[in-house]
Design a protein that fits this description.
This protein is an alpha/beta fold and about 475 residues long. Helices cover about 40% and strands about 20% of the residues. It contains 17 helices and 22 strands. A seven-stranded parallel sheet has the order 3-4-2-15-16-1-17, sandwiched between helices. The chain has a six-stranded mixed sheet with strand order 7-8-9-10-11-12, with helices on one face. Strands 18-21-22-19-20 form a five-stranded mixed sheet. Helix 6 links the parallel strand 3 and strand 4. Helix 6 packs across helix 17. The longest helix is centred in the N-terminal third of the chain and has 31 residues. It is globular and about 85 Å long.
């Protein structure tokens, strides 16, 4: 046992000073640690966990579990609040979800938000199969990858997913599950398989044999190695055979030719827009328990109807010869709405479709527009802090948060905020949670671009063509 009474007065003073120095040193260390911790960005998934505890998200989850409300209206969602809510819901219940936005741009940003918030596992984008519009008749192979990837996912009735789409994509028919299954080749590591047999099947599927693959629908053979670019995946596959056995399967990058991921099994799917294989709608392929989340269901029906009534533009051999041939690839607005009403629905736009069985009201506001005016930013942030809000700055680049801190420090202001390692499209405040989720690109008035997986496949052909040009030598010629 330690007693100070056992020491004289001088010793007591020395001991007291030593303890004081220890406490001061510990306090400094703790202060430095907290200072560094406040500069370390928060994982966006941790932010999503906080939002998943939102009282209205919890109420929505409860409503969906009860199965009594088939038409739910989510009122007051602004900014990227709808994407945050769907991502939170998906983290709670998994299951199958289809989110329908009003156009390609809205859908692209919504998809990008979901990928940022969840990491992308189980998140899919379902675009139109055509470059500009179906009336031009020009199929986009990169978009075909995304559409086929969705249809392949729907082959597994237990797979959880969120599909993001828009009217132009929903207007176009897809192949049925049965036809897709008949035209899918599954290859697994360790399987007894002859590479020449695979080559014959690919020829039957309409794949083109080339020296090296750069776009969907191609395959190349070099000894025991088979490269194939399926319409069901954004990267081509490299299959290595050992005799008549599949030894390894890897995906690889077209530009660098380097392996990306080792795979146990793959599904090879041909282009499905050729011929008359498209005979059903996406809605027909969805599991019965799918939750349909729409921004404006009435607008979706109207837009699908207008596509049905458009005349095809005849310009080349890819164009539709007449309107009847184009309509053979389309569904009507009435058919879409009839199918949509068979699913449970949530609406997150300005109004519900029909009479809502339940309404959940969120209190959110879009991020204010500052136009890079940090006098306005400073006043606004201080008002939020005085109101008890926690500030979060979301950015894909950590240096941006450091830059914002430096701006405040140069102004002699102490405005605490937490940086987050991923951004969303539109920032917002939530009054229930007393949080502000602000984006750096909106603070600095920068354009924010969404990214789709199809961009990688689309860039492959160009990059490889440039590579070929760089390899030309004197005497080479192009036919």
């Amino acid at each position: 046992m330690f007693y100070l009474s056992n020491f004289n007065s001088d010793a007591k003073v020395d001991i007291f000073l030593d303890f004081k120095n220890i406490i001061v040193t510990f306090s400094v260390i703790l202060h430095i640690y907290n200072y560094q911790l406040s500069f370390y960005p928060l994982e966006v998934q941790d932010l999503l966990k906080q939002y998943a505890a939102h009282p209205q998200v919890t109420a929505l989850h409860t409503l969906l579990k009860s199965k009594t409300s088939r038409n739910i209206f989510l009122k007051g969602l602004n900014g990227s609040g709808a994407a945050m809510t769907i991502a939170s819901l998906f983290s709670k219940r998994r299951g199958s979800h289809v989110c329908v936005l009003n156009d390609l741009e809205e859908a692209g940003y919504f998809y990008h938000d979901l990928v940022q918030l969840t990491g992308g596992d189980g998140i899919y984008f379902f675009p139109s199969a055509y470059r500009r519009a179906i009336k031009y008749g020009h199929v986009d192979p990169a978009n075909e990858i995304l559409r086929t990837e969705v249809l392949s996912t729907l082959q597994d009735p237990t797979a959880p997913f969120v599909i993001v789409t828009y009217p132009d994509a929903l207007a176009e028919k897809v192949i049925s599950r049965e036809v897709l299954k008949e035209n899918t080749l599954k290859i697994s590591v360790g399987e007894k398989l002859d590479n020449m047999f695979v080559s014959d099947v690919l020829d039957e599927y309409g794949f083109e044999q080339v020296d090296y693959v750069y776009e969907p629908g191609q395959y190349a053979m070099r000894g025991s190695i088979l490269d194939v670019f399926s319409f069901s995946y954004e990267f081509p596959y490299r299959i290595d055979f050992f005799g008549n056995e599949v030894e390894t399967i890897r995906s690889f990058d077209v530009e660098t030719q380097l392996s990306k991921e080792k795979l146990d099994s793959i599904y090879i799917v041909p282009e499905m827009t050729k011929g008359n294989r498209t005979n059903s709608s996406l809605m027909d392929s969805l599991p019965s328990g799918t939750l349909l989340a729409c921004k404006d269901l009435a607008w979706v029906k109207e837009r699908i109807g207008s596509i049905w009534n458009e005349e095809p533009i005849t310009g080349d051999e890819e164009s539709f010869a007449d309107i009847s041939r184009m309509r053979a690839r389309l569904v009507t607005g009435e058919d879409f709405l009839r199918a949509a009403l068979n699913f449970r629905r949530i609406h997150f736009g300005t109004r519900p479709a029909g009479v809502a069985d339940a309404t959940l009201t969120f209190s959110t506001q879009a991020q204010p527009i500052y136009h890079k005016n940090f006098d306005m930013v400073s006043d606004s942030f201080r008002n939020y802090l005085e109101g008890g809000y926690t500030l979060y700055i979301l950015s894909d680049v950590e240096k941006q948060a450091t830059r914002i801190r430096a701006i405040f420090e140069d102004r002699g202001e102490n405005i605490p905020f937490t940086s987050v390692n991923k951004t969303i499209h539109e920032g917002f405040t939530d009054d229930a949670l007393r949080i502000c989720l602000f984006t750096d690109h909106q603070l600095f008035d920068r354009f924010h671009k969404f990214n789709l997986k199809s961009e990688k496949a689309r860039s492959g052909k160009l990059s490889l063509s440039l590579k070929e040009l760089n390899q030309f030598t004197t005497g080479d010629y192009i036919v």
